[in-house]
Amino acid sequence: MNCQKASELASRQQDQPLSLSKKINLKLHLLMCEHCRNFSKNIEQLSDSMQSFLSGDDSKDQKK
Amino acid sequence: MQSNALSHVESSVMQHFNDVGFMSQLREQMIRFTQTQLRDAEIAEDIVQEALLGAVKNLKAFAGRAAFRSWVFAMLKNKMIDHIRKQGRAPATQSIDAEEFNAKGSWQQEAKPMPWQCPEAGLKQEQFMVILELCLNKLPGNQAQVFMMREFLGLACAEICTEVDITESNLHVLLYRARMNLQKCMANNWLHDDRQATLQKSIKNNLMNTIKKGR
Questions:
Q1: B-chain residues within 8 Å CB-CB of A4?
Q2: A59 in helix, strand or coil?
Q3: C-beta separation of B118 from B193 below 8 A
Q4: Are residues B1 and B43 in the same domain?
Q5: Chain B residues with CB inside 8 Å of A52's CB?
Q6: End-to-end CA distance of chain A, in Å?
Q7: Do B29 and B68 contact (CB within 8 A), yes or no?
Q8: Residues 6+ apart with CB under 8 A from B172
Q9: Domains in chain B: how many in total?
Q10: 0.90 surpassed by complex ipTM
Q11: Digit-coded pLDDT (tens) for B10-41
């Protein structure tokens, strides 16, 4: 799996569950690739921060 | 005693409404959020107005600005969803490009994602939302619209596809592009601040050293 594919899957995972094989492939790639790991964390934080903004929880987005 | 309780709640709400600076800022922010979904400025203003009215009608005591703001935004969210469900949307167009990657599908040097954490302070919610808004406004086409439907309004993929009239794979591409662009834009803005701070620090240190040496 290359970085382009991995980042696509990381994004898709925010919206729907991945199949088991895709999930494992993505995990393996993230283990090896710092850049994709950053990408994945950043888009997760994007989502979390929106949610904590809505719920008015100021502390939650500082956790990671 | 019930009237007393009510008047306490009323005064808690009015306290925020009377804060003109806070209210106009809040209103502006709400309108900008709404406009990611509805390009029509007039309708956006109407919906914001409705949300504010809704907040008044459903009186509740608010401890602080943050609590009041998230309450008003929850109202806004519902009004926006109502509107989207009533209206339906124009079809979307989107090209798939991936300038971030080389032919092998590896990150281009300048596109490599950086971690977001600012070393110590972290990023306060307020600042985060300011930068996010800035970056949302830069998104091409209807990326901002579908991103906000998904992440802010929390709509399911199937529903977004119906409302925006796109296929599911189209939606994933749009969301992917939106996240990629936001990711880049936000990293640039934070890193920029970060770099500036480091730069200022090193300039200051150099200056101090020069002064010390001079003595």
A1: 98, 100-101, 105-106
A2: coil
A3: yes
A4: yes
A5: 125
A6: 26
A7: no
A8: A8, A11, A12, A15, B157
A9: 2
A10: no
A11: 777 777 777 888 888 888 888 888 888 777 77
